[in-house]
Structure formats: structure tokens, C-alpha cells
């Protein structure tokens, strides 16, 4: 593995896919405007949904504050979120990875397809692949408990 490899040429696990209860617009808003109501630690975030805009947030994991960094690459409201994603040891291990979230309305919810690639090795890629399905299930549960009109979590 050389330092000249781009995220697209490094490890890329299979996409995480889930049929979500919420509408695409609600999922998009939760991901881009209300991230600390279901993923990031409440208040430990700086995220504005603009292409090229850097973001930062923390999560509390096993008692440790774990910072995440990145920037938005592509945003299509209700359809697509693409962002870089960087964490440290036992995360992306410093690799600037790319998360792509594709949203397709189904009439009764949303088919969500998440691809996360660009890891330095298969271990980090698999660690994230194993986590994303649980994270998407958590998001779906939070949105199911939300305001039916907006799809925004009722918490936070």
C-alpha cells in the first residue's frame, strides 16, 4: 500500500442497504442538519450542508470522545449525500474515506444504499461495514419515533 493511493483505489466493502420507514427528505435532513440527534454527541458538532464545507463532530464510544472530520462532496436534497470521513486509530486510521448515501423513495419509505470506501486495509473496512447496518437501524428507529410531517427526530 502506498501513500499515493486514492480513496477510490483502496479497500471498499459491500454497500450497506436498508429499506427505511421515513421519506427520503426526512433522512436527508436528519443526516445533514440534525446529525447530533441520532449519531454525533449532542452539541459536539459543526456541520453545515454545503458542498465543500468542512465538518467536525464527536461521538462517545466506550467512554472516549472520538472526533470525526470531513467535508461534503456532493449534496442532492432527498437523493444523495456524499462526504469524506476521517477518524483516527480503530476508525479509518487516518484514511480520508468517502461515504456515499443514496436515497430512493419507495412510496412507503426509502431504499437507502450506503457505500463507504477508501480504507487503508480490509480490517478497517470491515469494522465500518459491520457498524453501518446497526447505525442505519438506529436512524430508522429514531425517525420512526419522529414527527410524521418532517421526518426529523423528536429528540435533541
* Main sheet makeup: 7 strands, antiparallel
Specify the helix fraction band: 10-25%
Describe the strand arrangement of the main beta sheet, using strand numbers.
1-7-6-5-4-3-2
How many strands in all?
7
Parts with pLDDT < 50 across at least 5 consecutive residues: 148-156
The overall pLDDT average reads 88
* Structural class category: alpha+beta
Question: If you compute it from the alpha carbons, what radius of gyration comes out, rounded to the nearest whole angstrom?
Answer: 15 Å
**Helix-strand sequence:** EHEEEEEEH
Q: What is the CATH first-level class name?
A: Alpha Beta
Q: So, CATH architecture? A: 2-Layer Sandwich
Instruction: Quickly count the domains.
Output: 1
Tell me the CATH superfamily. START domain
Total number of helices: 2
* CATH fold-level assignment: Alpha-D-Glucose-1,6-Bisphosphate, Chain A, domain 4
Termini Cα gap:
42 Å
Task: Please provide a written account of the structure.
By secondary structure, this protein is an alpha+beta fold. It has a single domain, classed as START domain (Alpha-D-Glucose-1,6-Bisphosphate, Chain A, domain 4, 2-Layer Sandwich), CATH 3.30.530. The chain is 21% helix and 33% strand. The chain has two helices and seven strands; from the N terminus they run E-H-E-E-E-E-E-E-H. The protein has helices at residues 24-32, 122-144; strands spanning 16-20, 45-46, 54-61, 64-76, 80-85, 97-105, 110-117. It has a seven-stranded antiparallel sheet with strand order 1-7-6-5-4-3-2, with helices on one face. Strand 3 and strand 4 form a beta hairpin. The longest helix has 23 residues, at 122-144.
Amino acid at each position: 500500500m502506498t501513500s499515493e493511493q486514492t480513496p477510490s483505489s483502496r479497500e471498499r466493502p459491500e454497500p450497506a442497504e436498508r429499506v427505511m420507514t421515513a421519506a427520503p427528505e426526512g433522512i436527508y435532513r436528519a443526516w445533514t442538519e440534525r446529525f447530533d440527534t441520532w449519531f454525533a454527541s449532542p452539541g459536539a458538532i459543526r456541520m453545515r450542508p454545503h458542498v465543500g464545507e468542512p465538518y467536525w463532530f464527536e461521538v462517545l464510544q466506550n467512554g472516549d470522545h472520538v472526533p470525526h472530520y470531513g467535508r461534503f462532496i456532493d449534496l442532492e436534497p432527498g437523493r444523495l449525500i456524499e462526504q469524506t470521513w476521517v477518524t483516527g486509530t480503530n476508525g479509518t486510521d487516518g484514511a480520508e474515506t468517502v461515504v456515499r448515501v443514496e436515497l430512493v423513495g419507495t412510496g412507503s419509505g426509502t431504499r437507502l444504499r450506503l457505500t463507504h470506501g477508501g480504507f487503508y486495509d480490509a480490517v478497517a473496512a470491515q469494522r465500518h461495514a459491520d457498524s453501518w447496518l446497526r447505525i442505519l437501524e438506529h436512524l430508522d428507529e429514531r425517525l420512526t419515533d419522529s414527527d410524521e410531517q418532517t421526518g426529523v427526530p423528536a429528540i435533541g
